[in-house]
Amino acid sequence: MDNVAANGRAARVLAPVIACAVVGAGFCYSAWVLEFVLPVNTDPVNTFLSELDAEGKPYRDVFASADKLTGLLLIPAALCGLLVFPRRRFTTVGWVALMAFGAATIADAMLPLHDCDPAVENCSTSELFPQLHQPHAFTSSLAVTSIAVAAFAFSVAAFRYHRWRILREFGVVVLVVGLSATIWMLIADNLTGNYALGIAQRIQVGAMSAWLVTLGVAVLIEGRKQTT
């Protein structure tokens, strides 16, 4: 009983900190919107966000730093969430997946895209994803997969445990939007033409950021409920 009370007090104290970190990570992960302010000369319709912090890009430090900060905020926040909130199967999966997303995002920034030299590397022939052979493709895939697992796990937890109401409502809507954009990208990769893949990815990443903010709000509300 004393342990339960202690965990409840810890959750009440740490919930605002965890929430701020997760919300902050959501905003940092949306730093790509600066492409509309900074003179980066990208085509949002047909280029991928990874090109913003590719090697040699003029504002690489800005976008890479935002990604690193996202990970640095999420890893300790997810660890604290795992330790102070009641451990249940799906929330545990969610917190662990969120830590993996944070780590993958940091790796993503540290392993940027670089120009492919066919004389040195086995370059991909795909017009839509020409950099798939690079380590950056692996870290990006790991990041997307991790946050998808986290979103699904927390959504299932919200319904199954009858908590995290905002995740059952707005969070699910954001999840569906992100999933739709992902399906758009996967289908378009097997078709001729570009099909505005840049827009699809921006919707996908925007949904990730919105979901992180939603999770942060859910954490804050959940922490207040620990008073009961």
UniProtKB/TrEMBL annotation:
Transmembrane regions: 12-34, 69-85, 92-111, 137-159, 166-187, 199-221
Keywords: Membrane, Transmembrane, Transmembrane helix
InterPro entries for this protein: DUF998
The keyword Cell wall biogenesis/degradation is assigned to this record: no
Pfam families registered for this protein in UniProt: DUF998 (PF06197)
Protein name (database record): DUF998 domain-containing protein
Organism from which the protein derives: Nocardia camponoti
Lineage summary: Bacteria, Bacillati, Actinomycetota, Actinomycetes, Mycobacteriales
